[in-house]
Amino acid sequence: MGTARTEQRNDKASGLDERSPEDVLRLLHDAQIEAAASVARATNSITKAALLAADTLRAGGRLAYAAAGSSGLMALADALELPGTYGIAPDRIVILLAGGVASLDRLAGVYEDDKSQAAKDITQADLQKGDCLIAISASGTTPYALAAIDEAIKRGLKIISIANNPDVPLFEGADVTITLETPPEMVAGSTRMGAGTAQKIALNLLSTLMAVHLGHVHDGYMVNLTADNIKLRERAARIVSAISTCDISDAAKLLEASGGSVKAAILLAAGAANAEKASEILESNQQRLRPALSELKGSLGSR
User: Fold this and answer.
1) How far apart are the C-alpha atoms of 218 and 177, rounded to whole Å?
2) 69, 109 in Cβ contact below 8 A?
3) Can you tell me the distance from the alpha carbon of 125 to that of 258, in angstroms, rounded to the nearest whole number?
4) 3-state secondary structure of 282
5) Within the chain, where are the H helices?
6) Measured between alpha carbons, how far is 170 from 172 in angstroms, rounded to an integer?
7) What is the pLDDT of residues 203-239, one digit of tens each?
8) Which entry of 96, 148, 185, 302 is 20 to 30 Å from 256 by CA?
């Protein structure tokens, strides 16, 4: 096996198969906690990446994820949640998964070696200057991810690279590099475990901070969510109620008047004349609710 940290065996795994089930689970759990802790050492890089991603979306660009295997599943989980949780238009998010949809039926390793497909996927998605690519690979050497970066650089994209080994090819040419130095796996090379856990946490942090920059989080509430089912409509009403200090029934009416926009409903509760005016105030404040509320309060106070 290679010398890369992600291919080494954790020393604590010696005799793992001879231990009691309780001991095995304790060791596996401890290794997951240690892997998760590695993310704290990368917060400066994650901060830079979140700002780059936010700037991309704010300027009308698209955010693309490129990965294979377990890293692809982490990317998929993060990307698919963004439209619903933060109201980011689905056409602003691109998912490039080695093997495409077929790989979700059987996560075959052969897909990650397909360099030509990575270039084709970038081309087919019509990614171009103004867009941003997040490339993820535990080893930092996955051919699909590397080829995606090469093509993206040719097209002028900004690049964010995430790997679990330092000083890897995945970092070459990247605008922001995020190193998640997780310990060797308890099952050598099984990067769906510690490395995958760290990747998931890092992506959660990156995309959530990105949403904060975009004004989609206010006092810990997802104020730009897409309320497209019963649970989320109820959540939206609770958010409007909590921020506006109105009752739930009034919040539901305000949401109806705002066309389902949580931010606009909150502005209506604060005194905006109508949904159109609320939208204008939001637009003039780059969709950030706090300054929008301040502007509205100022305008009402000056009357």
Assistant:
1) 28
2) yes
3) 33
4) helix
5) 21-37, 43-58, 69-86, 102-105, 115-124, 143-154, 194-213, 230-244, 248-257, 262-269, 275-284, 289-301
6) 6
7) 999 999 999 999 999 999 999 999 889 999 999 999 9
8) 302
Residues in the chain: 303
Q: Tell me how far CA of residue 148 lies from CA of 24, 67, 121, in angstroms.
A: 38, 9, 8
Cβ atoms of 191 and 6 within 8 Å: the answer is yes
In sign, the C-alpha dihedral spanning 135, 136, 139, 144 is negative
Q: What is the pLDDT of residue 50?
A: 98
**Residues near 216 by beta carbon (within 8 Å), at least 6 away in sequence:** 86, 87, 88, 222, 223, 224, 287
Listed residue (96, 157, 161, 159) closest to 131, CA to CA:
157
List, in sequence order, every residue forming a beta bridge with 95; answer none if it has no partner.
65
Asked if 272 and 283 touch (Cβ cutoff 8 Å), the reply is no
Neighbours of 172 (CB within 10 A): 15
Residues 36 and 28: their CA atoms lie apart, in Å, by: 12
The tokens describing 10, both together, are: 């954790």
Residue 48's nearest CA partner among 137, 142, 139, 176 is: 176
Query: Any bridge partners for residue 133, and if so which?
Result: 64, 159
State what percent of residues in the chain have pLDDT above 90. Answer: 83
User: Which of 239, 228, 289 has the alpha carbon at shortest distance from 263?
Assistant: 289
> Residue 72, Cβ neighbours under 10 Å: how many?
27
Helix, strand, or coil (residue 292): helix
Q: What is the pLDDT of residues 23-57, one digit of tens each?
A: 999 999 999 999 999 999 999 999 999 999 999 99
